[in-house]
Amino acid sequence: MLFRNDDFFEIPFRPPYEFISAATFLVCSISSILLPIGLKIPPEPGQVIAAVLFIIAVWQFSKGFSKHQELASLKKGGVEFMDSSEIKKKYEEAKAKKKFWLGKGFYWDNDKVQRAHYIRNRGIEKLLPQHLSGQKEFNGAHWVHGLGKHDEGDVEPNIDILNGMVIIYGTTGSGKTRLYEVLISQAIERGEAVIFIDPKGDKDMPKIMEATCRRYGISDKYLYFHPAKPEISVRLDVLKNWNRYTEIASRIRMALPVEGKGDSFSEFAWKVVNDIVGAEIYINEKPNLFRIKNYISGGVAELAQRALEKYCESKLSKEQIKSYINNGGGQAPGAKASKLDVYISVYQNLLADQQDGVINDIVELAKHDRDHLAKMVPILTPLLTKLTTGPLRELLSPDDSDPYDNRLIADNKKIVAEGMVLCMALDSLSDSTIGSAIGSMELADLATVAGDRYNYVGEDQYVPVNIFIDEAAEVLNDSVIQLMNKGRGSLFRMYLATQTVSDLVARLGSKEKANMVMGNANTTICLRVKGTDTAEQVCKILDKVDILSIESNVSLNNSGPNALGEKSLKYTESKKKTQDYAIHPSMLLNLPPLHFFAFVSGAQGAYKCKIPIIRYDS
User: Fold this and answer.
1) Which of 59, 293, 475, 517 would bridge with 384, disulfide CB 3.0–4.6 Å?
2) Stated pTM of the model
3) If we measure between CA atoms, which residue out of 145, 159, 147, 8 comes closest to residue 80?
4) Within a 13 Å sphere around the CA of 184, how many CA atoms are in the beta-carbon half?
């Protein structure tokens, strides 16, 4: 400890001066044995003195060795490797205790806080010059982990803290994907549903997830989705699950590029889609992206006619309709009206007091000027065209009646209910608009499934659902906030990884919504980040603490009547206490890859952790 009581304070990481005194006492001890021999006096007194001096020398050496180890430990925070069999054992041990393995580390107590601030203020290069080569080798300040190397052990928080949201901050190359690897593998081992949404499409994660499923005998539950790899991808119906059909239009609006949201064009686009979907459901036609796009680009006349025909025939007999038409209803003299116009006339004249909102909407849309309609949905049409062109047509608008397509059709309700494992790559590097749109609709669909489960499924039937989102700022929308609010009650566990707080603000459109996301996090994990804003935001999770230091002062006193009078030199030391972050932002900016601080719910503090590089068997 840095301080033993209120009157004692020891500067950490000082040189081991005790080695000098230990050597001195050892020499004196040896001399006490040899001197009586030379002087030819009785040896007994010298032996007694030698024994006492030797004990003091050993005591001084042990104190010096402790100080030496204190310095040497700063070099022990580097990269470690672990075989897959060994880490699998750790997963199983944590599971048996109803915990999960978060890595190797230690609790960030007051002792570590004081030592870290001392190093930060003095500079590691002054304390340990040879450390500089190690810092370059390990790409970061690995001395931070060295502070608690002697206290290091397996960090195993209770599994219950995951029943909410975990937010992970980390810049590119800091180890977010490897951390996800550890968390996802354990969720699969526990037999829980896993959905991993990866905007960029990590190459290793699908292999790891598939291998983990195979290792636990659930290969049939592994699903893979990738827009650029349709031949090995499952087909995913992202519009299948809804409680009110208006959710479908909202889901598609969420998928619009950021610049297309929140204006009159967006509102009009929502109404167009909603009118189409309402009519489709009325005639028992399953809505999908491909049909909606065709109705918008090709017109809704045929859809409106089928809806009108069904509605009119449900209210009137065929004889009444036929008689009205034969008597010239719906037709101008000398003109031949279309079937749609005829049924509009029947609806407006014979059923004027029995009209329906869905039918009114689709009729209004059918009569809308096509050119004006095209101008009012300038962002919606290109997006739907991209989502329904080429392989994406079958992937996102699956046709279960196609006898030539044997690929599995999956939906989130099925994935959740059966505890399946979905690795969903969005290929945002190829087309960020498409990747973002698919991710947004997937999250909106999951929000519906969560709400449905919360309202209608008994808690005893819940299988925990783990939703991992890498580069979350690429796909976040209001549905994520819904998932966070409903998630705990329906046992949906959210894991969001992002690079900076600013990314969340830019994606969600306001700092208030970003704060809402961050405030909902039960657990925060921070790897190396860029930008002091993010680092400070994370460090504010913990209250500021008292930092102790020694302040020295030297003064020269002149006590004589003139310049030749007596002079005295006065040296004083005082203990100084200041307030500062328990974890300073500069430490988060310089963490090595795979190192992180975990602010675990209920721990009243933080853990300093690192995860090893896992060596998998062939």
Assistant:
1) 293
2) 0.83
3) 145
4) 32
| pLDDT score of 425 more than 90 | yes
- List pLDDT tens digits, range 318-359: 888 888 888 766 565 555 678 898 889 999 989 989 999 999
CA 554, 558, 559, 565 torsion-angle sign: positive
With bands split at pLDDT 50, 70 and 90, how would you rate the model's confidence at 129? low
Q: Quote the CA–CA distance of 177 and 183 in Å, as a whole number.
A: 10
Q: How much of the chain is in helix, strand and coil states, percent to nearest 5?
A: 50, 15, 35
Task: Count CA atoms within 13 Å of residue 115 on its CB side.
Answer: 21
Among residues 275, 268, 269, the alpha carbon closest in space to that of 362 is found at 275
Q: Which pLDDT belongs to residue 509?
A: 80
d(CA 397, CA 240): 10
The C-alpha atoms of residue 222 and residue 410 are separated, in whole angstroms, by: 11
Beta-carbon contacts of residue 203 (< 8 Å; ≥ 6 apart): none
Helices (H), 457-558: 478-490, 501-508, 511-519, 532-539
366, 300 in Cβ contact below 8 A? yes
The rounded distance, in Å, linking the Cα atoms of 99 and 90 is 11
* Predicted local distance difference test score (pLDDT) of residue 516: 83
479-527 pLDDT per residue, tens: 787 788 777 778 899 999 999 999 888 888 888 888 888 888 889 999 9
The predicted pLDDT at position 131 comes to 46
In this structure, what are the phi and psi dihedrals at residue 309, rounded to the nearest 5 degrees?
A: -60, -45
Inter-residue contact 595 to 609 (CB < 8 Å): yes
Query: In this structure, what DSSP letter does residue 153 have?
Result: E
Lookup result for tokens 């030819």: 40
Q: How confident is the model at residue 538 (pLDDT cuts 50, 70, 90)?
A: very high
The better pLDDT of the pair 39, 469 is held by 469
Strand 607-610 and strand 103-107: pairing?
antiparallel
Are residues 268 and 440 in contact, defined by beta-carbon separation less than 8 angstroms?
Answer: no
Cα angle for residues 8, 13, 17 (degrees, 5° grid): 85
